[in-house]
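RECORD TYPE: protein structure
NAME: Olfactory receptor
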Amino acid sequence: MWPRGNGTLSAEPLQGFVLVGFQGGPETQALLFAAFLALYMVTVLGNLTMIVVITLDAHLHSPMYLFLRSLSFLDLCYSSVIAPNALANFFSSSKAISFAGCATQFFCFSMLGSAECFLLAVMAYDRFMAICSPLRYPVIMSPSACARLVLGTYCGGCLNSLVQTSFTFTLPFCASHRIDHFFCDVTPLLQLACANTALNQLVLFGICGLIIMGTTVVIIVSYGYITVTILRMPSTSGRHKLFSTCGSHMTAVSLFYGTLFVIYAQPGAMESMEQSKIISVFYTLVIPMLNPLIYSLRNKDVKAALRRLGQRHTAR
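PREDICTED:
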């Protein structure tokens, strides 16, 4: 659906979109390209390192670290859905993305983001069982149970993504083909529709709000019980170790959920698309980059595994 010569809109099927990206001249685009590239490279290196270390070190083959490996994999995929295309567009004259490409990016982004919400809740439940029910923990969090929980996070993310994608990409996009963002996100896409999007917005805020609030409740309840259990421990060193372990997860949760809540769980919260773009950079690139650092720098087991892996490589 492109503008005709007389200024009206044709009814031809839309072939693609243009990702407007960030404002600024060539120097600004070059600076943003360098920043995006640096963030993405550190994200890839950090998350790949976590995946390799947890996979190769037998000392880390416990539910906690298997979930952490899944988180690293999600973060790696999450950033890879967005960053390469954004990097290519900084120096592209057309900044075009096909309709199918936009829908695919939106589906993958939505699925991985939702799956990460569910996985963070699963990780909180895992810590709750390990600390509050240590005798039952090996049975309840068996390898098969952990595999089912991880699979469930992907199924939940896929279901949400199917609903969001089908509701969004069946709309008639006749207002414009220019997406005021650096990737195909739901809010700027809805702004291009020439139909009533009230139902879409209701579905968006309803489902996203339910996912964010539901998983947040699981995390808060889990850590409420964990805090009470830890405070009852007589050993100061034991309390410090458990608080340190749980603190890494709570830091990651606060960063991820805080940005998602600002953008997706509050109707009308993001009226400025420039502000939305900046916050989107934070949760698509910065947080996936920080997660491996948060978990490795504050975790003695991961640091010890890194040393063992380095010594094994040096010995060869």
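COMMENT: The first strand starts at residue 16 and ends at 19.
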